[in-house]
Amino acid sequence: MKTTINNSYTRILLTVLMASILSCSKEFLDEPQNTAGLPESVVFSNREIVQSFVTGIYARYKGQWDDDLTDDGLEGGNNSNPDTGGLYAMYFARTVKGNDLIQAPSFFLFDYAHENRSPTFRRTSFTWTFNYEFVNYANAIINGVENSPDLDEGTKKEFIAVGKALRAFHYFQLALEFAPNYNNDRSVARLPIYTKPATGSSTGNPPSPLSEVYDMILSDLKSAIEDLPEERLGKSYINKTVANGILARVLQVTQDDWDLASASAKAAYGGDAENAVTSTNWGEGFDDLSDPDWLWGMFQDGSNESNFFWLSPHAMIDHDSDGYFATYANTNFRDTFSDTDVRKLFEDIYGSSTPYREFVTSKFTFTFASDVPFMRKSEMVLVDAEAQYRLGNEDDARSLLFTLQKERDPNATMSSNSGNALFQEILLERRKELYGEIGVEWFDAKRLRMPINRDAVHRVPVNVPADSELFYLTIPQSEIDANPNMDNSINQQ
């Protein structure tokens, strides 16, 4: 990890702070001081400068990583690809691994075919580098704020909490992407843990057992939730509500505290499910961060804050704008929606005789100003429904499920299912509500140890068995070569 972490840290006070300086929209600070190149002693001496630093970190979610895994602002130009365009690119790579959507021979085609996990492939290297870079940013915040003689205690608590929430979120992504399911083998060791920022003399740490990685994730999130405020500069920022949502997702994976999963989900959606599921985005392009249903997302303004054609899912899925026209909808998935469901946004616009090209979805509209959803209240209502089912409260689970269903379909009726049939209905509702957004189908299959079985309509009808190694990536060769505490045997686990 020495190479990745050290390279990112040498840029952290330059590239990231410069990104924050250039950000002047409603989502970011108005004209913060020019702090590019300032030493840590200055950066962590003033609340406004620390906030600018954090703002710049969030702006990195719009980054475009070159093939050599540097950012696009470095000498040599931009050799990046839309499938390594930021956090949403990682989510979309998960999305196309499922059965519900179909990817044409375009970007993300190797993810779609489950052929993109080898140690030297771009998907593997990008996903590792991207997440560990943010881990290092988080450690820089925590370390810098803790050691600052100038910041007051309230400011310190708040920004340490920001750092811990970021670190937990990105270690969670690493655990999902590079390790088997948590409940398969908690002793498997594939991820090094770092709690201090890298320096020029840093050496990569040995990998830690998955149980220790999740212990740190849970500890960081619980600590962060205590000290994070609800107030924030915009929905691009993690606050107490979003941290609760992240914790709810983690507990869906560990499956060992459904009471806390329910409480965390409720804290995220506000406790009033009927109000929480109200959305203004369905049929309007799913591109507006101001939607009351959206908890966390990536703001874009179409000019200085835009990822342009690197944007997923919008640039891939929209077939009416100037994008890639790359993603299609499975006919059988389309047929799970009633005709009065506002989410049934599928069209046969090509009249194609090729089965996989029969339907597209107009859920997402692509422009350079399209905002990207990372977390929504409706997802949290469904997490709560699953938690209630797991706790044996099936009436509560059905009621929460119906709250969402009747909001999306005026002709919906409350489920009469029980047992596994009710659970499967909750999982289907998650797919219908969240398709294209966060890779929900892949996430549920992995955490629940289920297969991904594609039907014949697919361009690549591959089947992925439960607990298959295809559910996680190998460790990048670049990490193995740079870290003396790792060798090639790690990919034999």
TrEMBL record:
- Which InterPro entries does UniProt cross-reference here? SusD-like_N, SusD_RagB_dom, TPR-like_helical_dom_sf
What SUPFAM superfamilies is this protein classified in?
TPR-like
Residue intervals of the SusD-like N-terminal domain: 120-250
What are the record keywords, sorted?
Cell outer membrane, Membrane, Signal
A Pfam family that the UniProt record links to this protein: SusD-like_3
The residue ranges of the RagB/SusD domain are 370-487
Q: Which segment of the chain is annotated as a signal peptide?
A: none
From the Swiss-Prot or TrEMBL record, state where the protein is found: Cell outer membrane
Q: Which family does it belong to?
A: Belongs to the SusD family.
The identity of this protein, by name, is: RagB/SusD family nutrient uptake outer membrane protein
Source organism per entry reads Hyunsoonleella rubra
